[in-house]
Amino acid sequence: xxxxxxxxxxxxxxxxxxxxxxxxxxxxxxxxxxxxxxxxxxxxxxxxxxxxxxxxxxxxxxxxxxxxxxxxxxxxxxxxxxxxxxxxxxxxxxxxxxxxxxxxxxxxxxxxxxxxxxxxxxxxxxxxxxxxxxxxxxxxxxxxxxxxxxxxxxxxxxxxxxxxxxxxxxxxxxxxxxxxxxxxxxxxxxxxxxxxxxxxxxxxxxxxxxxxxxxxxxxxxxxxxxxxxxxxxxxxxxxxxxxxxxxxxxxxxxxxxxxxxxxxxxxxxxxxxxxxxxxxxxxxxxxxxxxxxxxxxxxxxxxxxxxxxxxxxxxxxxxxxxxxxxxxxxxxxxxxxxxxxxxxxxxxxxxxxxxxxxxxxxxxxxxxxxxxxxxxxxxxxxxxxxxxxxxxxxxxxxxxxxxxxxxxxxxxxxxxxxxxxxxx
Length: 424
What we know:
Number of domains: 1
Shape: globular
CATH class: Mainly Alpha
CATH superfamily: Amino acid/polyamine transporter I
Helix content: over 70%
């Protein structure tokens, strides 16, 4: 019996790590590191609160997929055309800029690691071509394997860097949270907090991505996971993403805060500063190792995002009834994925070409837009998992629903504060 439970859990493992891999990108390497470098430990509590309060909405994706055998997008469709239309609007309104944002970070790291004297547009194009090749040849299996290896390597190297940073006698007086909060309570500080919350630890859109990955994993293994196993897989990935967010913030705070060195605007220069954080903590011997680890991590994030949007858009097309059922036309099913993959790549490249030089501004804009869309997605996810189509025995319990409504209130209040701040 125990052997069967273990094998069932092992078959379910994968989508949670894909979710974590997608998370440990811009929100961690860029935003968490900036939070620690610019505000010390002041925003540590904000990061933890965001991760706790967003947990239910992201967990609802794999929960619904395991309980019903359908994606969360199908759940939106069952709520009505208005729900599916709202999710479609949010997806189409953010996918190009989010794809561009994660690609820019990867391109900056690639230029630094390989010493390429290319501009950002050329570097980004090379990164996206690499993603397209892997996704068209390796498909889900290749994505799943790559993510598992890379996440393990990054977790070990980041934990080691933070441990060594603690041993480097940081200036604890400068790191006292009260000093950091003085900088937070400014227009720039508040704007950054909203941007930090937008992708911490990951946008709520990913609940739908996760449900699609869960179904793909079940099809690949021939094993439909139980709700218990699907949630366990999710928790492993989510807990790992939360811990890494804290570690990146600590690294930025311990090594850079109070040093007088501001993180640069350029993607390539930012990437170099990021690797410097590890080199200062671990020593120069670690620089090439960390540079490669950071690059592979961001590449895996870009790979996950590049895979997710074509899956989502394809699902929207097929679920809305605008296309034949995939079982009736498997070639068309795959063809729609490739077509959307190319369209998203082209859209991202246009944004990178015209706005890539304003790296951190682009990141802040993308993360803020995600935060403003979060209450709508949170509400949709609550509606889906409490609807009549969700089996009663698999609906969230009272404590999880209490956390969900608390998170929803948190998101709404912060959005209202943002609106008032922008108006007045």
